[in-house]
Amino acid sequence: MRDPPNPESDSTRAGAASRAEAMEAAALWHARLDSGSADLEAFERWRAADPSHAIAFARTVATWEALPSGLAAHPRPAARSRRAVFLALGALSLTVAGVGVSGRVWAREHASTKVGERRTVRLSADAHADLNTDTRLSWRSRGDQLTLWLDRGEVAVAARPEAGSVLLHAGGVVCALSPGRYNARLEAGRVDVTPLDGVVVGRTPAGAPIRAVRGQRLLARDGEIAAGAAPPEELDRIAAWPEGEVVFNGTPLSEAVAEYNRYLDRKLVIEDQRLGRLTIGGRFTSTDPSDFLSALQAIMPLRILRTPDTVILATAE
């Protein structure tokens, strides 16, 4: 009768090391697939190269599926070491069935717009999003869970009741969206989520949930979040941008120029900051400032100087 394998034997140690390496690699592939940064062909080559790779990846998938939903919905800490990831996964004894899990079901979809561009994307059969200028959005629809990540810019999200649970991640804030329509903007570290006809519940990692309904908005910055009334001029702006327009109502010129510049490659520059305190009102095409500049010249003492890269607003002589 043969003796059982010696745990300290070279072959046993080599096998354990091989399994450890496979689990570590599987965890890394899973993270890349989850973030949408993976090379899918390279992943398929790695998984097909050895049966242990497919088994390790299936265990990884099963482990994350077993996590509580509240934990799985949050981004994984970037500082977590590869070895810690392996240990967390390897400590669980799981029965693996169906090792041919495709990495494609874990990959996020991505969409982005250039400066001045707008586009509409379908998030699932029952939800879609409009992307404003210079915006990047990623999403994953799995079962009755739709998860969105707003990396920058502004989106209008519409979800029917059939869309199921909708989570929006933006700037360290996680928002649960009920069926309805929402506008979300992430700019300069500030998150602004406005429900147009729905309920949003947002929270930061260290904060309590904050609720906002129609007529309100959530504002978050530096780890703090609060709900307040949505100003009428902000609601007008939200309604205007999907139509390719910007709207101002007694807006200081400095703020109007900053908003317009979101849509323009050739930026507007205020030469004399005293001009920036003057106010402007009106509705204009977002990607063509010609009417805006004509209106400024009609009501303000200024000159317009054009350079190849900028349009300068200067005080009239």
Task: Give structural notes.
With 317 residues, the chain is of the alpha+beta class. 29% of the residues lie in helices and 35% in strands. The protein has helices at 10-35, 40-49, 51-66, 69-72, 82-90, 232-240, 253-261, 290-299, and strands at residues 109-112, 119-124, 127-131, 136-142, 145-159, 165-170, 173-177, 180-187, 190-195, 200-203, 210-212, 216-221, 224-229, 245-252, 267-270, 279-285, 302-306, 310-315. The chain is elongated, with a radius of gyration of 26 Å. 28% of the residues are buried. Mean pLDDT is 82; it is low at 1-8 and 67-101.
Give the proportion of residues in helices. 25-40%
Q: Pairing-aware structural class of the strands and helices?
A: alpha+beta
Helical stretch count? Answer: 8
Q: How many E-type strands?
A: 18
Low-confidence stretches: 1-8, 67-101
Order of helices and strands: HHHHHEEEEEEEEEEEEEHEHEEHEE
Percent of residues in beta strands: 35-45%
Distance between the termini: 105 Å
**What's the assembly state of these chains?**
single chain
Can you tell me the overall shape?
elongated
Based on CA atoms alone, the radius of gyration comes out at 26 Å
Largest sheet: 13 strands, mixed
- The residue-averaged pLDDT reads 82
Short description:
With 317 residues, this protein is an alpha+beta fold. The chain has helices at 10-35, 40-49, 51-66, 69-72, 82-90, 232-240, 253-261, 290-299, and strands at 109-112, 119-124, 127-131, 136-142, 145-159, 165-170, 173-177, 180-187, 190-195, 200-203, 210-212, 216-221, 224-229, 245-252, 267-270, 279-285, 302-306, 310-315.
